[in-house]
Amino acid sequence: MSTLASAYTPSTTGHPVRQVLARRPELFTLMLLVALCAFVAAANPDFLRLATLFDLARASVVIGLFALGVFVILAAGGIDVSFTAIAALCMYGVTKGVVEFAPGLPLPVVFTLSIAIGLGLGLVNGFLVHHLRVPSLIVTIGTQYTFRGLLLTFIGTIWITTLPPQMDDFGKVALLTTTSSQGATIILPLFVLILPAVAVLTWWILRRTLLGRAIFAVGGSPAVAERLGYDLRSIHLFIFGYAGALAGLAGIIHACSNRQANPFDLVGSEIDVIAAVVLGGARITGGTGTVVGVVLGTLLVVVINNVLIMAGVPSTWQRVVVGAFILIAGAFMVNRRRA
Amino acid sequence: MKKFLLAASVAGVALAGAAVELSAQTKPTIATVVKISGIPWFSRMEVGVKAFGSANPDVQASQSGPATADAAQQLKIIEDLTARRVNALAVVPMDPSVVEGALKRAMDRGIIVVTHEADNQRNTNADVEAFDNAAYGAALNERLAKCMGGQGKWTSFVGSLGSRTHIQWVDAGAANAKKYSGMTLVDEKNESFDDANKTYEKAKEILRKHPDIRGFQGSAGNDVLGIGRAIEEAGLQDKVCLVGTGLPNPSAQYLESGAIDAIGFWDPRDAGMAMNSVAKILLEKKPLADGMDLGVKGYEKVTVKKGPGQGQLIIGNAMVIADKATYKDHLF
């Protein structure tokens, strides 16, 4: 298998580079990201504008929050595919509740409510994974259907296109505003700051707390971790609860930024998120990965999804290009590890 | 004793049968079956079905549909109604191929079947379409060209490249735009997946790539919402034109702000009335003729031709193109 890897890194310098890459896989993600941006900029120099950066930052928030949640679960050797259903339920349930019962509810309460519901549903996942002793993929496929079914059956199917004013305004608050040469206003919304804040929090939990060590230990080998005295039950509850809470947060941000709450939204984007985490260098089998890698992986997926028109790829070819890119990047990732 | 009981029960059954027969004879029932009940589109259709019922006291019109977008559940409802021997079925199939068998069985039992949004349905007496797809796409584009003054770059969005009607609309639009030498089509047929957020991101990318773009033509219901948000946030309401399929209520805020210049749609209320009207004509054993009047707005002079099966295809001229001044006449 080393043939592919050595074709990628010249054999004379291959060894030290490969060692660095093996230690810091996120460097590889960074290289891919830079190469991709350079390629698009060469195809269309207009890519190198502030407006592009603003748009990419905005598009990264929701998928980035999902990816950090999935990463924490992946680090502990599990997987979650129910987070989009949790986010949709929180987003639509909370928005509908605010519209119907408490139109003046302060924004921080709206957010807290959404995060709390997400946390609750995440804990349901954690509880089921721990007590049923069924692989987390199976459990979360089940809960994805259940949560989505509950949303559409009991909460509603009608789109909310006029959000309560406090949510609508939050989506529009600008951190930076500029004007393009053609007179178009370009806004960097304030909510983009939430992603770096949550990334730092996640990094701190994983790298600076005992809990973080426990998560990676469980991801490495649950049996060994249990013998070392880590409490598997509380770790399972924490990782799924944390991912659920982040999904709740992402959901409510999605509604504010989108200026509508669509109950059929979000579910279906799990694959993009899992691709982002894996392209960021985390192993699908657990025990490895870094927060920086996850953020870079998110950017990579967001960039590939948002530059194809810019690069002049006709829309019939866009899905082919995205698929091929993920295949190639994924193959390099796996071969790098084996090298 | 036994004989008496038997005779009594036979008489009872006959009596009950006669009662059913009697009520069926006095008042034929037309059952409308929609894709999903409870969503705004089909609630609006129910308004039409009820209006038809009260305007035609000689028939009994009602509407039902599954609670979720599920072709299997819709099939079950059609089978139930067939077993209950309604006189006519007016179906908006979730998936025409799934209900072919059920509709055939209904027709074999003498039930009149009318469909809508299913011009490829084989087992139907008549399929009612609101408009000709090419005419609709051209009309949307004509409105766009008027807004753009026949000048500048424009692009088109489709729900997906596999969506036959959307492709027909934008192709007809592109053909129409050729009339204006100043209009240039760039990066056409962007896929929106009927997702407002994806549409928004693609629209922003197009605004970056073509800062001088002057027009957008949308196809899926969410396209105008996503593109409208991108235009509104950029403050380009007065510089960029946006025309596309959309529903009045969700589009209202963008029509008011000027981000959306016009929306095109057909009114499901009128479509519901037209289906019931066709069902009634067929129940009365009257023929369907080219150019006839169904007595519903937009269906006053319908085109009738042979459908893909033994039934007929009825095409109305019921497209509605509404702007800021007129959308309030169609709020749903």
Automatic annotation (TrEMBL), chain A:
Keyword Lipid metabolism attached: no
GO cellular component, one term: plasma membrane
Transmembrane helix in keyword set: yes
Its membrane topology: Multi-pass membrane protein
Molecular-function GO terms, alphabetical: transmembrane transporter activity
Keywords: Cell inner membrane, Cell membrane, Membrane, Transmembrane, Transmembrane helix, Transport
Main location: membrane
Localization: Cell membrane
Protein name: ABC transporter permease
From TrEMBL, chain B:
Signal peptide bounds: 1-18
Family of the protein in this entry: Belongs to the bacterial solute-binding protein 2 family.
InterPro entries in the cross-refs: Bact_Solute-Bind_Prot2, Peripla_BP_I, SBP_2_dom
All copies of domain Periplasmic binding protein, residue ranges: 30-286
GO cellular component: outer membrane-bounded periplasmic space
Chief localisation class: periplasm
Subcellular compartments: Periplasm
Molecular function GO terms recorded: carbohydrate binding
Keywords: Signal
Protein name as annotated: Autoinducer 2 ABC transporter substrate-binding protein
